[in-house]
Specification:
The chain is of the alpha/beta class. The chain has three domains: about 140 residues, 3-Layer(aba) Sandwich (Rossmann fold), CATH 3.40.50; about 160 residues, P-loop containing nucleotide triphosphate hydrolases (Rossmann fold), CATH 3.40.50.300; about 130 residues, Helicase, Ruva Protein, domain 3 (Orthogonal Bundle). It is built from 19 helices and 14 strands. Strand 5, helix 3 and strand 6 form a beta-alpha-beta unit. Helix 13 packs across helix 15. The protein starts with a strand and ends with a helix.
Length: about 450
């Protein structure tokens, strides 16, 4: 299959030798699926520049003007258009001059000209496709991280957080986002970045919790000659220059590193090339971490100008079914099938669970449910929750003694394959009590 250029981006060939123009055009079409527009003088080319050519192949000597003049006018119209010169004159000085001015290449009309030209066009095409892919990904990111984003839900706290994104994303204010694992902290931080003036600059994530203490200095700063000026030549700081650094669990950073980051921020403030916007993410309350002397007070006040608390999913019951449907609909859309419904049993099962893994756990649960469902209805038996540490689950929220009892019995029934006799023995209670609770729908 031939490599193709978009129809909207023709190749312009400017050559006054009609025979040579035909030979070149034929050679290109043998290798590429493309539109070639041939011109025999410079003025005709200039009158058609608005056609948005992908590249221009230009004879250096034309009847009405020389290549230098043509090149200047092309670059004045659109400096991004690549220009390849074809010439019978092998003038080394002229080659150097035009390449310095921005010509893509300068090819002498000899037996190697066509093969060299094809190689150049392949490289230009690859670059064009790369630019298109980048543009596509940027559009994708803009759509994925827009402020009407529903991934986080519709709870009042979430709406308030999204409102802060709209108001603060384009400022340089540093944000701290708190919440349990899986509540969407990183997703919200990305909303701040991709809706900011730094959206096309790097977004770098550094997690102090998963980085060994003796590696934090190197991972953050790399090989540094002058940290105050931000002259690290590797590491997360260097990678985030001009962009955003998502700093996860900053209270775990050694205090010496916290102090260095303060110095770096002060030294690069106002420097568009080297400054970094810091967004702090933590499962802990960072104000309490200051009180516990794990976080330098100055660090907290510099980098946590605004604090956002994301509530756990168990505190947002109204969002559970909204998010579950969002995840299932996305999976159905990817396979281009109709969106399935949820049975009442499935809804009840989803609403009764406590989600220690929050949104992330719900998403994983929906991926599994989709995989084993009939793709028409998500039923109760499609919903599977993996048992968690019962001590953790018991502490998820306040319950009555009866609710705690039911939770413990359900946990044991699941662990022992619904063997009521064995569960009654393990819990030192009567089988009749368990059977009664099952009959009454309390289990």
């Amino acid at each position: 299959m031939k490599n193709s250029f978009p129809e909207s981006s023709p190749i312009f060939l400017v050559e006054d030798d009609l025979v040579y123009a035909e030979l070149v055009s034929y050679a290109i079409k043998q290798q590429f699926k493309c539109t070639i527009k041939t011109f025999h003088n410079g003025n005709d080319l200039l009158e058609n520049l608005s056609s948005n050519p992908a590249l221009i192949i230009l004879d250096y000597v034309l009847p009405d003007m020389h290549g230098d003049e043509m090149f200047t006018k092309i670059k004045s119209f659109n400096p991004a258009i690549p220009v390849i010169f074809l010439t019978a004159n092998n003038d080394v000085n002229k080659v150097v001059e035009l390449i310095k001015l921005g010509a893509y290449d300068y090819i002498t009309k000899d037996e190697h000209a066509q093969s060299l030209l094809i190689e150049d066009i392949k490289k230009i095409q690859e670059h064009l496709h790369l630019k298109q892919n980048i543009a596509y990904l940027e559009d994708l990111l803009q759509n994925e991280y827009n402020t009407s984003d529903s991934f986080l839900g519709n709870a009042p706290e979430i709406k308030q957080a999204l409102n802060l994104v709209e108001k603060l994303a384009k400022t340089e204010i540093s944000i701290a986002i708190h919440g349990e694992y899986g509540t969407g902290k990183e997703h919200l931080a990305k909303l701040f970045h991709f809706n900011s003036n730094r959206a096309k600059k790097p977004l770098v994530v550094f997690n102090a919790e998963t980085c060994a203490q003796d590696q934090i200095q190197t991972q953050l700063f790399g090989m540094v000659s002058d940290k105050k000026k931000g002259s690290a030549n590797s590491g997360s700081i260097a990678a985030a220059r001009g962009g955003t650094l998502l700093l996860q669990e900053p209270q775990l950073l050694p205090k010496a590193i916290q102090a260095e980051l303060l110095q770096l921020e002060a030294a690069t403030k106002g420097d568009a090339t080297n400054s970094i916007r810091f967004l702090l993410l933590s499962k802990s309350n960072l104000a309490e971490e200051v009180a516990n002397q794990n976080l330098i007070k100055e660090f907290y006040y510099r980098f946590a100008s605004v604090n956002i608390q994301l509530p756990p999913l168990r505190k947002r019951k109204a969002d559970i079914l909204i998010l579950a449907k969002l995840f299932i609909d996305e999976l159905a859309n990817n396979q281009q099938v109709d969106y399935p419904a949820f049975s009442e049993e499935a809804k009840t099962k989803l609403l009764e669970y406590t989600y220690p893994g929050n949104i992330d756990e719900l998403k994983s649960c929906m991926e599994l449910a989709w995989a084993i469902s009939d793709k028409h209805t998500i039923k109760g038996n499609d919903i599977t929750f993996y048992p968690v540490d019962i001590k953790t689950d018991l502490l998820m929220e306040e319950r009555t003694l009866e609710e705690y009892t039911a939770l413990i019995i359900k946990y044991f029934l699941k662990n022992y394959n619904n063997n009521v006799n064995l569960v009654a023995e393990k819990l030192d209670m009567s089988r009749s009590t368990i059977y009664k609770m099952i009959k009454e729908g309390r289990l």
